[in-house]
Amino acid sequence: MSYFGMPSVDLLGEQIDAVLSDPSTTHGLARALRTAAWEIELHRYHHASQRAWPDGRIDQEPSKVQIGGGTHRIEGFFNIDAVPPADLLWDVREGIPLHDDTVELIFSEHFLEHIDYPRSVKSYVREAHRALTPAGQIITG
User: Where on the phi/psi map is residue 68: left (φ > 0), alpha (ψ -120 to 50), or beta?
Assistant: First the structure.
């Protein structure tokens, strides 16, 4: 859906920026709008990767994966995160783009507190289980 040829999410982002720049915007509203603006940014990253892999599965089949590592990257792990500098920019609240039964180890720490409970957490665990090999492990801290 668009408004005058502009994708609606871009229009929404511009509107949020305009309200945030208004000095009369209250603290509570500004806080909520900054969160919405952040989610729009995550949506843009995710949507760009989703266009590259429309079936929701990447070409690689890494054996060790780090989810949500941010700037703390672990040598030898394929890093999936919603923001740079990940190997793959992907919002795992929308699923994990790995093939079934291909990953030996999934590691994440200081990640679960950034997604909604119970819906997103349960979806993450279900997706991690799907991607793990039968003897695979998930380590979450």
Answer: left
Rounded Cα distance, 123 and 90, in Å: 14
Using alpha carbons, select from 60, 126, 55, 41 the residue that is nearest to residue 92: 126
Question: For the segment 89-129, what is each residue's pLDDT rounded down to a tens digit?
Answer: 999 999 999 999 999 999 999 989 989 899 999 999 999 99
For the chain, domain boundaries? 2-52, 64-140
CATH superfamily of 64-140: Vaccinia Virus protein VP39 (3.40.50.150)
Of the chain, the end-to-end C-alpha distance in Å amounts to: 40
